[in-house]
Amino acid sequence: MQTLIDTAAQAGNFRTLISALQTASFIDTLRTKGPYTLFAPTDAAFRRLVPGALDALLQDTGRLYAFLAHHVVSGIVMLKDVTSGEIKTIGGASLVTVRAGGEVFVNGVSISRADIAASNGVMHVVDEVILPFGEMLTAA
Fold first, then answer.
1. Bigger pLDDT: 134 vs 71
2. Quick count: other Cβ atoms within 10 Å of Cβ 1?
3. Beta-carbon contacts of residue 50 (< 8 Å; ≥ 6 apart)
4. For the chain, which has fewer Cβ within 10 Å, the N-terminal or C-terminal residue?
5. Band of the pLDDT at 97, cuts 50, 70, 90?
6. pLDDT tens across 38-93, in order?
């Protein structure tokens, strides 16, 4: 079985995420034993950001690392185990989870594909980037 990074790379629609993880020196973390739960934004999710926001993040590796850490939880969180409440990211922030109408939302972002197993955890696909409530990414 492949690591989270190898699983994402093989899927082909997480190129931006993988590039950002490399830039932030975060990629090796997601290749370690873990286990981790990765809420993985697709390339399309990154394209939905405000124009220039991703470029601004890539220029500030500290901020980029914190942004990416907001998408990773220590341990394995399977979709069936998610209840409405909070879970802590590896960066120390809380993600608000809501289970409604058969869907699960993380900080208001819907999980579009869940429980993709990897040797060091599980990946859930999200079609938007997950931001802390009240935070917006800007180009500058």
1. 71
2. 8
3. 136, 137, 138, 139
4. C
5. very high
6. 999 999 999 998 888 899 889 989 889 999 999 999 999 999 999 899 999 998 98
